């Protein structure tokens, strides 16, 4: 599966938005970068669907622009949204690129958060990331803001660990770098850190 981070190098704060090109060309999150539509067009002139991991502003700010530019592709989301055409829930199957992914409900960082798991790949949104400003290997979404829960996030990481196969070797997270290698080890590291229940950032 050919995956491009179409918000890489953005000057403004945004999530990583991933374009999976294949049998079903899908954008996972829309990001908040002003010219994301132009970058998507560098790789494809057609978008079958957009899948939202969750609806924080850095993940959906450009959703309207993307949908308008690509003639209203299918939009999959757990939480309600004016652009949503398909509600998804835990256990659903979605084709992204050339692979079939299982939807895993992973709240804690956001009440509507989902991750996507296949035999080889994980789109983890913000529940688990490879590296960020807090940790260089195996980090997790912040839970210090209103409506967030560290305890619920820990449950979600445990669930994700159980449902991510040992064969997974590509992790596309909402922030930080794409990871290629032992995805299970990254999730286990993130879980161990989250379970310490210490503030992720010193100013929390």
Give an account of the 3D structure.
22% of the residues lie in helices and 25% in strands. It is of the alpha/beta class and 204 residues long. A six-stranded mixed beta sheet has the order 1-2-3-4-5-6, with no helix packed on it. A six-stranded mixed beta sheet has the order 7-8-9-10-13-14. Strands 11-12 form a two-stranded antiparallel sheet. The termini are far apart.
Chart the SSEs and their pairings.
Layout: E1 2-5, E2 18-21, E3 26-28, H1 36-41, E4 49-51, H2 57-60, H3 63-69, E5 74-77, E6 86-87, E7 93-96, E8 99-105, E9 114-117, E10 121-125, E11 128-129, E12 139-140, H4 150-163, E13 170-173, E14 179-180, H5 183-195
Parallel strand pairs: 3-4, 4-5, 5-6, 10-13
Antiparallel strand pairs: 1-2, 2-3, 7-8, 8-9, 9-10, 11-12, 13-14
Helix pairs in contact: 4-5
* Succession of helices and strands: EEEHEHHEEEEEEEEHEEH
Strand content: 15-25%
N-to-C span: 39 Å
Biggest beta-sheet profile: 6 strands, mixed
Basic shape: globular
The secondary structure category is alpha/beta
The number of domains is 1
Helical stretch tally: 5
CATH class designation: Alpha Beta
CATH homologous superfamily grouping: Ribonuclease Z/Hydroxyacylglutathione hydrolase-like
Low-confidence stretches: none
Q: In CATH terms, what is the fold-level topology?
A: Metallo-beta-lactamase, Chain A
Q: How many strand units?
A: 14
CATH 2nd-level architecture: 4-Layer Sandwich
Mean pLDDT: 96
Percent helix: 10-25%
Briefly summarize what is shown.
The chain has 204 residues and is α/β, with parallel strands linked by helices. It contains five helices and 14 strands.
């Amino acid at each position: 599966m050919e995956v491009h981070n179409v918000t890489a190098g953005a000057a403004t704060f945004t999530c990583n938005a991933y374009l999976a090109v294949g049998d079903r060309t899908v954008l996972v999150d829309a990001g908040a970068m002003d010219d994301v539509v132009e970058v998507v067009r560098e790789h494809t002139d057609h978008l079958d669907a957009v899948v939202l991991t969750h609806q924080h502003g850095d993940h959906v700010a450009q959703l309207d622009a993307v949908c308008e530019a690509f003639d209203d592709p299918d939009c999959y989301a757990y939480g309600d949204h004016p652009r949503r055409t398909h509600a998804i829930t835990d256990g659903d199957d979605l084709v992204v690129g050339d692979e079939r992914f299982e939807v895993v409900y992973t709240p804690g960082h956001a009440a509507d958060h989902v991750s996507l798991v296949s035999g080889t790949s994980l789109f983890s949104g913000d529940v688990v990331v490879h590296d960020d400003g807090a940790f260089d290997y195996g980090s997790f979404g912040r839970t210090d803001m209103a409506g967030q829960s560290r305890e619920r996030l820990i449950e979600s990481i445990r669930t994700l660990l159980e449902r991510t196969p040992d064969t997974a070797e590509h992790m596309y997270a909402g922030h930080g770098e794409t990871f290629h290698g032992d995805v299970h080890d990254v999730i286990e590291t993130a879980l161990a850190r989250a379970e310490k229940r210490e503030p992720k950032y010193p100013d929390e």
